[in-house]
Amino acid sequence: MAAKNMEELVSLCKRRGFIFQSGEIYGGLQGLYDFGPLGVELKNNLKQAWWSSMVYERDDVEGLDASILTKPAVLQHSGHEDTFTDPLVDCKSCNSRWRADHIGGKSCPKCGSKELTKPRPFNLMFKTNLGPVDDGSSFAYLRPETAQQIFTNFKNIVDSTSRSLPFGIAQIGKAFRNEVTPRNFIFRVREFEQMELEFFVNKGDDEKWHEYWVEKRLCWWEKQGVSRSKLKEHVVPAEDLSHYSKKTIDIMYEFPHGFEELEGIANRTDFDLGSHTKNQGDLNIGAAIKENTDSVSRLAIQDVETKEWSVPYVIEPSAGVERGLLAVLNEAYSVEKIGENKERTVLSLAPHLSPIKAAIIPLKRNNEDIVRIAKEVKVELQGLGLGRVLLENTGNIGKSYRKHDEIGTPICITIDFDTLENKTITIRNRDTMLQTKANISEAQKILKDLLVKQ
């Protein structure tokens, strides 16, 4: 199962209300997308699955939701102001702009000209003015990643929770990068969400924790329906490592446009807390950091026995929500033949990710008794709090089934004349298309069992 190409996924997303081009009625805005009725549900479900696995199912992780606007000093001391750039080239023939590392054969992808400017650094961070006067003297950055606010809140969280090593801080939130060439649908965009964990450990334990989190994240993606056969580990070469990284392993996924990064797991050493802490000279920091005379907090942990202070190492699993959503959609997508001349499109999403958990379908839309019972079942199942349950009252049972196959609804529950006579309902399975009878009183248990067993 998988889409043949990106166009199939783009078409499905537009047709069924998963994802729309932002500002489409005005020609759209490149690198920005809006998530429609089904897209927002799928996105929220993926984020909730991540949050549950990182925070609720563990006893060593705390959550955070920090601000998007970021004080320049934060990104100055993190190194972003100096290093967060892409090499940019211009085509002298057609005036288009490209990332230098995305141009094959050193010719313009648009017109083929080899008349290109020399690469020059292009800062990826967005700025915005603060206060009533726009004179450039007071500004903030839109954060390019969610990680830095985790580091700057390290002391607040340690003081308020009394955490000791090892422990983590998790955050899901928006980030912004002024990408030169947004591409491949929602894979590379200018506004996106990240799911990031910063896991703090003692120096010397960092390598084993790095291996632990790589395997943990691979298993998590499998539970979201991404086949392990479509994933591979890529050890980032030393010359390509970020300035803070001791070692980074990228989990690569076979997207419709080829293998690219789905998630990165980095060993950031003591660079981050070491860069943001005061009294750097007293803390035996191993990473190459710049002097910080602005910070007012010591971002370190004191050993209970020796009373010595040390800056923790950090292991960072970092995933993009949009890339994850694209991978999940691609893995779930298939077109199946259901006869000599018929076929159906199916999204075989894991039920806990499905935008709609169950569709309640009255067999006849104008039969008051059937519709009334259908509404009652809908309210009853919605009250379980397991996700969205939809009343699908179109009057065409075949088209309703096809629609819900295509949007990934795991079960359809049909209310028919048998329901009126003997209180039975028909449960239709998305993946097998098998239909079984059950008593209407079993509807809650059926839905619970479907979702809780995940």
Structural write-up:
With 454 residues, the chain is of the alpha+beta class. It folds into three domains: 6-84 and 127-329, Bira Bifunctional Protein, Domain 2 (BirA Bifunctional Protein, domain 2, 2-Layer Sandwich); 85-123, no CATH class; 354-452, Rossmann fold (3-Layer(aba) Sandwich), CATH 3.40.50. 29% of the residues lie in helices and 28% in strands. The protein has 13 helices and 24 strands. It has helices at residues 6-16, 37-56, 72-77, 80-83, 147-152, 154-161, 206-223, 271-276, 321-332, 368-382, 397-407, 417-422, 443-452; strands at 19-21, 33-35, 61-64, 69-70, 85-90, 97-99, 120-123, 127-129, 139-142, 167-176, 191-201, 231-235, 247-255, 258-269, 301-302, 309-310, 313-320, 333-337, 343-347, 356-362, 388-391, 411-415, 424-429, 435-439. It has a seven-stranded mixed beta sheet with strand order 3-10-11-17-14-13-12. The longest helix is centred in the N-terminal third of the chain and has 20 residues, at 37-56.
Write the layout of secondary structure elements.
Layout: H1 6-16, E1 19-21, E2 33-35, H2 37-56, E3 61-64, E4 69-70, H3 72-77, H4 80-83, E5 85-90, E6 97-99, E7 120-123, E8 127-129, E9 139-142, H5 147-152, H6 154-161, E10 167-176, E11 191-201, H7 206-223, E12 231-235, E13 247-255, E14 258-269, H8 271-276, E15 301-302, E16 309-310, E17 313-320, H9 321-332, E18 333-337, E19 343-347, E20 356-362, H10 368-382, E21 388-391, H11 397-407, E22 411-415, H12 417-422, E23 424-429, E24 435-439, H13 443-452
Parallel strand pairs: 3-10, 20-21, 20-22
Antiparallel strand pairs: 1-2, 4-9, 5-6, 5-7, 8-9, 10-11, 11-17, 12-13, 13-14, 14-17, 15-16, 18-19, 22-23, 23-24
Helix pairs in contact: 2-9
